[in-house]
Amino acid sequence: MSTSKSSRRTQPWRDTAIPRRPLLWLAAALLFTLPPMFGNLASWVPFLFLLALVLKFWMEPRGYRLRSTILKLILAAVTVGAIFLSYQTLTGIEPSVSLLAVLVSLKILEAHTAREFQVMVMMAWVLCLCGFLLSQDLAIGLCLFVAFALLIAALVQFHRGSSPGAFWLSLATTFKLLAQAAPLVVLLFLLFPRINTGFRLRIGDLRSAMTGFSDRLSPGGIAALANSTNIAFRAEFPDRRTGPVGPMYWRGLVMWHCEGMEWRGPYAPTSISDSSRRYPASDKTIRQRITIPPHGARWMFALDRPLGSPSGAMLARGNYLYSVQLIRKPRRYEVLSSTEPVRTELDAYERRQALQLPASISPAVRELAASFAADDSEPRQTVSRALQFFRNQGFRYSLTPGEYNKNDLEEFLFHRRTGFCEHYAASFATLMRLAGIPARVVVGYLGGEYNDLGGFFLVHQADTHAWCEVWIPENGWTRIDPTSVVAPGRASQDLSSFLAGRVASGEIATGRSAFFTGLVRLALVNQIRSIWEALNYQWDTRVMGFDADVQDVLLTSLGLTNKGPLPLIMQVLVVIVAVLIIYAGWMQLRTRPRTDRIQALYERFCRKLTRIGVQRDPWEGPSDFATRAAQSLPNESERVRRITETYIALRYAPGPGPNSIHRFAKEVDAFTAHR
Amino acid sequence: MFAHRIIPAHDCGVTDHVDAFVKQICEVIVGKNQAVKLAVACLLTRGHLLIEDIPGVGKTTLSQALARSLALAFQRIQFTSDLLPADILGNSIFDRDEQRFVFHRGPLFSQVVLIDEVNRATPKTQSALLEAMEENHISIDGVTYELPQPFFVVATQNPQTAVGTFPLPESQLDRFLIRIELGVPDRASERAMLLGMDRREMLKELKPVISPRTLIEIQDNVRKVHASAALLDYLQDLLDASRQRHTTGLSPRAGLALLHASQAWALMNGRDMVLPEDIQAIGIAVMGHRLGNDIEQLGQSGRTFADNLLHSVPVP
Fold first, then answer.
1. Which among A359, A646, B76, B270 could disulfide-bond with B15, CB atoms 3.0 to 4.6 Å apart, if both were Cys?
2. Contact A494/A463 with Cβ under 8 angstroms?
3. Contact check, Cβ <8 Å, B272/A654
4. Backbone φ, ψ for residue B178 (5° rounding)
């Protein structure tokens, strides 16, 4: 009210300048819309945005602004052209968001009126929305929330003008507004229909680097991930607080096809029967609840070795999980694994597969394999001889073993003898096949970082690991990890702690700087990191993981049936309207002038008179009204006079007693008007 | 008004005096009871009165009747466009015998001052009235002279549209507690006036009804009339509404004026508490001239605006 009044008073008012303080708020808000752009859009876009902001603050006090229409048109054309060059298209999420960001940058340079300021605030809001299209991380979410709040503050400041103290007041108002909106947001979050189908929007760029996985295990492929800080997945053990005893091998993919140093998984895995029902939960089995971020492929993970498959996934030949559909959004599933080797039969097809070898294997390697299998002894002997070979022949574990070709088996085994897990797994499995023992390579993760707060294990991409399985008739497929022979201790911890230990003892050098390694070892930093991880986990599972299925469960438990989206939308609308009505009623109740008992009684008296046709105007004083009522109701004039007299005495006279309230109540009760 | 009948007159010791006073003036100014009562209320509130109307409806007669009935010293100043502040406040003139400047008091040093045609004088002279009206004293040449008590200014003015007028500035208008309009009398009253005695003769024969001492006592009593919380709510609602609907709205001083005038009105009606009806009775006279220049609603007079306010703000 006061704002509109002041603007009216300063008429004629010319819209010539953006007030400075709201502009500061807006600039801060725009800064917070930047993070999702970095890394998701063409890199020049956020920089152009920043440049525009800086330029604006340089130009504004000097009165410079982008005036020439031709220049503006040229700039717009150039930037649109640049976007086209960057993406080769103008459709799709990234080009569109880039376009919006670029045009907002130009608008920042151009804007110089209060009206344009408001347009910019609106566009910034759209930018916030677009930020969520690019990324739904907790960090990004927090950034955008801050931006959102700052935009409200900018608008509040803008409308409040330059009254003193308004700076913090506008923040206070913003928090108040946000707090008022919070219940509605929660309600909408819980009840607004989640639509699983029909809304196909490719969100985010699912780069292959998101996962350390491919269906091909080539030398150096895993070592390249050793410094990655990306998260592979998180796992909880619902039945116990901590993980299983012994190393945690997370099974991802089984590779059958050998090409020497390079192994390959099947293009289309075939499923095998679900065996989980035969193994009820016992101390030999372990249940896990796993949350994987979207990685755009079909890999799913479980402790070695999964017994059954969750819905939407199958148990592929080789006992690993394989999603039916590409994983494009966070996925959460429960799976049961057996910690003991599972006894199965090896059929002829599998045997053939598990003994397949490439033709190009050098005689020296064949000779080495034959020496393991000498005396035609039983497979166990062969395996232990091979392990012995790796243990005693000076093999070294290294993140940077140098380049190997897929046919460099000989080079690795006899000359360089330096490698990472994939080298050992691949060469060992190949040697086993050469020695006549069915073998396969398993790729997955090893270890995990336990988060105390969240009670879950965090598995990083850096923990990617490869190991072997060999067929031993008495035991079935048996896990053999040649890496653990070369680098004892790796299996019992996750890679980063293992490496940290090795670096500390001077055994290996890492690519990380000493500062970074020192920082990681600081207790406080670790504490904060662990809190952050726990929060992230909650965000991913509780907020991002709240999809149509979870919502369905919730709604059913609330007694709302869900038969298709339309009834659901109707129900939600009904609930929202009901809540709004309750809220409006509450506000009405709260803001209604506090009527005391006397006033309530008098109003009752007035209602009684209204019923017989004498209505009090709201602005009519009691005495005037009594005069009018007495004139139109001559029979009742005495009683009207007496009641009014009591009322006036109670309400306007100095110091009325409680007795008279009682009398007044009785009089009003007794009053029944007749014409 | 019914209020004094429906509430038994609580004898504050003043009703008789005031009734007699009002009655005597009403004999001179025929058919203008409401205006006369408002003028008396203004006097009892220690406020100053502005009478705005065309010439010849009895403005001067009313003020003279007020002065004579009170046995107060009366002065009349005719404002003209060449009147200077010194003409009303007084002059320091060199006295040869005493060899010094001696202050000669101007006509404003009186108890009832009738300022005739106040809007004919220049703004300079008009503003010379300011201090006297608000503070009840006059400062000249560094010396402050207290004005005699009670001090009561009755100003008359012709409507703004008349030729040769300087409209009173808002600050000065705000200093008049009440503005009334007399208007032409109705037919019967006019007949009575035409048949009756010469007004000048009547004025000469008026006897004082209230002594200055009694008047001061009554004025003190006015401030003691009780205004309850409910009444103040109503008063503040009125002020708020005026500020929302009008560019300037009513000032806090106007709020005080409303309260005090309604206290006087309540007392005149023999009550020791203010009712919303009291505010409504004096509302237009108190608010009308304070809600004048609304740049948004040109042509709407302050009286109409005040009337709308009183007929829309609910009594809580």
1. B270
2. yes
3. yes
4. -135, 140
* Pick from A1, A9, A618: CB nearest B315: A618
CB of B132 within 8 A of CB of B95? no
Name beta bridge partners: B112. Answer: B74, B152
Residues near A504 by Cβ (< 8 Å), separated by ≥ 6?
A: none
Q: What average pLDDT does chain B have?
A: 81
Kindly identify which residue of chain B lies nearest to residue A7, measuring between CA atoms.
B247
Whether B312 sits inside 8 A of A620 (CB atoms) is no
Is the Cβ of A159 closer than 8 Å to some Cβ of chain B?
no
SS3 A570: helix
pLDDT in tens, B152-162: 888 888 776 66
Which of B4, B5, B7, B233 to probe by mutation at the A interface, max A CB count within 10 Å? Answer: B7
Give A32-79 pLDDT, tens digit per residue. 988 888 877 888 888 888 898 888 888 877 877 777 889 889 988 998
Boundaries of every domain in chain A: 20-161, 208-542, 597-670
User: In angstroms, how far is CA B68 from the centroid of its own chain?
Assistant: 16
Give the amino acid at A486.
V
Mapping DSSP to helix (H, G, I), strand (E, B) and coil, where does residue A295 land? coil
Residues of chain B positioned with their CB less than 8 A from the CB of A626: 2, 6
**Strand (E) or helix (H) holding B188:** helix B187-195
Do A624 and B6 count as a contact with CB atoms less than 8 A apart?
no
Euclidean distance between the first and final Cα of chain B, in Å?
Answer: 20
Contact present, B305 and B246 (Cβ < 8 Å): yes
Mutate: best of A624, A625, A636, A660, partner B, most B CBs <10 A: A624
Range A114-135 burial, b when 16+ CB lie within 10 A, else e: beebbebbebbbebbebbebbb
Other Cβ atoms less than 10 A from the Cβ of A612: the count is 15
B209-229 pLDDT, tens digit each: 888 888 888 888 888 888 888
* Site from B1, B233, B275, B296 to mutate, A interface, most A CB atoms within 10 angstroms: B275
CB-CB neighbours of A10 under 10 Å: 9
Rounded to whole angstroms, how far apart are CA atoms A448 and A445? 8
**Contact yes or no for A323/A298 (Cβ under 8 A):** yes
For residue A360, give every residue at least 6 positions away whose Cβ sits within 8 Å of its Cβ, in sequence order, or none: A260, A407
Nearest to B228 among A617, A644, A651 (CB): A651
Dihedral, CA atoms, B50, B40, B279, B30, nearest 10 degrees? -80
List, for residues B22-47, the tens digit of each pLDDT value: 888 888 887 788 888 888 889 888 88
**B contacts of A602 (beta carbons < 8 Å):** none
Secondary element (H or E) of residue A2: helix A2-9
Largest Cα separation within chain B, whole Å, is 68
C-beta atoms of A652 and B277 within 8 A: no
In A314-374, where does DSSP find H-type helix?
Answer: 348-354, 363-372
Q: Is the pLDDT reported for residue A228 higher than 90?
A: no
Residue partners of A545: CB distance under 8 A and separation at least 6? A291, A330, A332
Q: How far is CA A579 from CA A180, A184, A192, A570, A589, in A?
A: 13, 9, 14, 14, 15
Nearest-CA neighbor of A344 among A440, A479, A481, A471?
Answer: A471
- For chain B, say whether A626 makes contact (Cβ under 8 Å): yes
Using a CB-CB cut-off of 8 Å, the residues of chain A touching B274 are 652
